[in-house]
Design brief:
The complex is a heterodimer of chains A (310) and B (418).
Chain A lengths: L2 E12 L2 E12 L3 E5 L6 H8 L7 E6 L2 E2 L8 E4 L11 H11 L4 H14 L15 H13 L5 E5 L7 H16 L3 E5 L3 H7 L2 E6 L2 E7 H7 L4 E8 L12 E4 L10 E6 L6 H11 E9 L3 H14 L1
Parallel strand pairs in A: 3-8, 3-9, 6-7, 7-8
Antiparallel strand pairs in A: 1-2, 1-4, 4-5, 9-10, 11-13, 11-14, 12-13
Helix pairs in contact in A: 2-3, 2-4
Chain B lengths: L1 H15 L2 H26 L8 E5 L16 E3 L5 H10 L5 E5 L7 H7 L1 E3 L6 H22 L4 H7 L15 H39 L2 H5 L5 H34 L5 H16 L2 H29 L6 H24 L4 H6 L6 H8 L6 H29 L9 H8 L2
Parallel strand pairs in B: 1-2, 1-3
Antiparallel strand pairs in B: 3-4
The chains are: A alpha/beta (310), B mainly alpha (418).
Chain lengths: 310, 418
């Protein structure tokens, strides 16, 4: 796969404060790339550099293998976390203004704005002023502004904030469709459930440094604790106590019914899942057996904790 | 350049569509007309409602002779004791003071003229004392001439009032031009102040709003900060020119509509003013006005835009506004004396310094300025504008993304080197 964006050893300083320290990452074409990190980690600084709002103090940024140049901005769409719209401007005029700023001709801008307004169901707002819109409505407009020039690279900072579940889902579908049509999406968010739902790859930045980089499944595997969720119906006269070699505990959230167990078993070093499965089969009928992978929430917290201890 | 145009068009449309634009466009001419009527009314009635001056004329010779002391009313008291009269004036609040004219028996003009006194609780204005002194001088001159045997008729016949004809080498009446130049100079001063300061503050607020609403982050991901800033300040100049053009049209329209309805005397005055205007270098005045209007707004707006970008709330703008106001205030106050003496050293220097020249030079232009001074002043204005845009753009591009703290002057200086 070709790299759409490469960040190579980028550092950024504001006086004595280090916002980014030697950060490198690569974003593949048609990938949804999660840019994660606690508040103040340096995500926004990185986004501003890619958007050419600021320049790095060290390192380089490449777009499709070329050094970042002003003309690249025509191929970047940006949805900022804190929404930026002119409050006293009409919705339609505002979208046209930003489309023209991104290099579209007047006719093309009008056609694209109409297309996206219809697609997002906001055609009727054309003559409304932004100050009359709710937060969710303004968010939809901002999303339309970010995508209407069909950017090859789309940077979304907290794209789901302010949306109700129905509209959040709609935006999620739009993002997935943009990806399927070849757009590359960088998604910066704190909402880990949305990371799991849409991201192919994640990078975690903490205290200006990159501390984690990989495909979502790979990252989860890195942080897994070898815990298995088992649903077991013991044979007559057999009990869980037969699992003496394993570290297990009954799941409190499992529904209780006579004769069945739901347990979480954590493997000790040198124990294998097959060994556990064989032991389980000795004492009962295994209804289900599944390895528990950490959620992205847990990965995030664990990675930041480990980084703090290093 | 196209992006500057897009920003300019958006800002221009946003400004002229605001209700405040319509209100100020209509209200300011009305306010100015109201002010002119008020000032003219007040000057006609100047002193009429002031307290009268009591006169204790021991000689009894001055009633009638000093009645013409300007518009200051004089009330002659009975001469029944000076001390009692003084006490009455001090205890009551009816008179502004007591004018005492002593007398000897027989009347000795030399003694009396040296012993006239004006008693008052508060200092009396110099204009009142000058007018009184003038009246007394006329009286004593007449009195002494008559005593020497000159008849009143001869005195009147000898009274002369010379009025020097003021002309330029083109034989034009410069007295009429001067009389017209003073109010035009004042009008230019006011307009320059209004456009430079009020429009500058508007640009500052607009930049600050863009910063606070974070819309600037979206905009400068598509345009360079300097393009955004230039688009905004060019839009400000265009809005100013639009407003000024509307005023010209309104004045022209009003002249056409109501010109015929003016009383003959007023119509004559307007006609005279119009004729005099035709004798002046109106095209140069107009060119100078548009030039200083544009470069004044451009230069000050770039400073105001930098201030708006550097801070993140209205309160923090105050310390910077104060400093920017100083050259404007100096130019405003100086323009009052420049209108009296256009070629003074102060007028010369302030009309060359770019931060004061838009106001100071426009106060001088109606009286005529040597071409080399005008050209030098304009060249300095253009050069300073480019320098100021460079400075402002550097502050703007750093400040626009800085939140949470008020920058010091030292920090602003550091931003120039980023």
């Amino acid at each position: 796969m070709s790299k759409v964006l490469s960040i190579e050893h980028v550092s950024k300083y504001y006086g004595a404060y280090t916002a980014l320290s030697d950060v490198s990452l690569a974003v593949e074409k048609a990938q949804i790339f999660g840019l994660l990190g606690p508040n103040g980690a340096g995500k926004t600084s990185l986004i501003r550099i890619v958007n050419q709002i600021t320049a790095p103090d060290a390192g380089s940024v490449l777009i499709n293998g070329e050094r970042l140049r002003p003309h690249h901005i025509q191929n970047v769409g940006y949805l900022p976390e804190e929404r930026g719209l002119y409050r006293d401007m009409k919705v339609g005029e505002q979208a046209l203004f930003f489309a023209r700023l991104k290099g579209l001709s007047a006719a093309e801008a009008r056609a694209r704005v109409s297309h996206w307004f219809q697609r997002l169901g906001i055609q009727g707002w054309w003559h409304k002023k932004v100050q009359e819109l709710s937060k969710g409505m303004a968010q939809k407009l901002q999303f339309a502004i970010a995508v209407l020039h069909s950017p090859a690279l789309l940077i979304l900072d907290e794209p789901f904030s302010g949306f109700d579940p129905i509209n959040a889902n709609r935006i999620k579908d739009e993002i997935l469709e943009l990806r399927d049509r070849g757009a590359t999406v960088i998604c910066s968010t704190h909402r880990m459930e949305s990371v799991e739902a849409i991201c192919d790859h994640v990078v975690l930045i903490n205290q200006s440094r990159k501390i984690l980089d990989g495909a979502v499944q790979t990252v989860k595997n890195q942080f897994k604790k070898h815990v298995y969720d088992v649903h077991l119906v013991p044979f007559e006269g057999m009990a869980l106590q037969a699992l003496t070699h394993f570290d297990y505990q009954e799941r409190k959230d499992a529904p209780k019914y006579s004769g069945a167990y739901r347990v979480e078993v954590a493997l000790k070093p040198k124990q294998s899942p097959n060994e556990l499965l064989q032991a389980l089969m000795q004492i009962g009928t295994v209804r289900s057996f599944e390895e528990l992978l950490p959620t992205m929430d847990e990965v995030f917290i664990e990675a930041v904790k480990r980084d703090a201890h290093e | 350049m196209n992006k500057i145009g897009l920003v300019l068009a958006r800002d221009y449309a946003a400004r002229v569509r605001k209700r405040t634009f319509l209100i100020t466009t209509l209200a300011i001419p009305l306010f100015l007309i109201g002010m002119a009527v008020f000032v003219s009314f007040m000057s006609q009635h100047d002193g009429a409602d002031a307290k009268p001056l009591a006169v204790y004329d021991q000689s009894g010779m001055f009633q009638g002779a000093i009645q013409s002391a300007g518009s200051q009313r004089l009330i002659f008291l009975p001469t029944d004791g000076l001390e009692a009269a003084k006490a009455r004036i001090q205890t009551g609040d009816r008179y502004m003071g007591l004018l005492y004219i002593p007398a000897t028996e027989p009347f000795d003009a030399d003694y009396t003229q040296d012993h006239i006194a004006l008693f008052s609780m508060k200092p009396v204005s110099t204009s009142v004392t000058h007018r009184l002194e003038n009246d007394f001088n006329n009286f004593f001159t007449n009195y002494k001439l008559q005593r020497s045997g000159v008849t009143q008729g001869r005195i009147e016949a000898a009274r002369t009032e010379v009025k020097i004809e003021l002309k330029n080498f083109q034989n034009q009446d410069t007295r009429r031009i001067s009389a017209l130049a003073a109010p035009i100079s004042n009008a230019f001063t006011f307009l320059m102040y209004f456009f430079v300061f009020v429009y500058g503050v508007r640009v500052m607020r607009s930049v600050l709003e863009e910063k606070l609403s974070r819309v600037v982050e979206v905009v400068i991901s598509a345009v360079k900060p300097v393009q955004l800033m230039l688009g905004k300040i060019f839009a400000s100049v265009l809005v100013g020119l639009t407003q000024f053009s509307i005023w010209i049209l309104l004045i022209g329209g009003a002249a056409l509509l109501f010109g015929a309805a003016l009383p003959t005397q007023s119509a004559g005055m307007v006609q005279n003013a119009w004729t005099t205007l035709g004798e002046t270098n109106v095209s140069l005045w107009f060119f100078a006005f548009v030039f200083y209007f544009a470069f004044g707004i451009l230069t000050y707006n770039s400073i105001f835009a930098a201030i708006g970008a550097a801070v993140d709330n209205q309160t923090d703008t105050q310390q910077f506004l104060l400093v920017v106001s100083i050259p404007i205030l100096i130019a405003i106050y100086a323009s009052i004396s420049i209108a009296q003496n256009p070629d003074s050293a102060m007028g010369f220097w302030l009309s060359l310094i770019p931060l004061t020249s838009p106001i100071a030079m426009m106060a001088r232009v109606p009286f005529g300025v040597p071409p080399w001074q005008l050209i030098l002043s304009m060249a300095l204005s253009v050069g300073f504008f480019f320098f100021m845009v460079w400075v402002a753009a550097r502050i703007y591009r750093v400040g626009i993304l800085m939140y949470g703290k008020k920058p010091s002057w030292k920090e602003l200086y550091r931003w120039l080197k980023y």
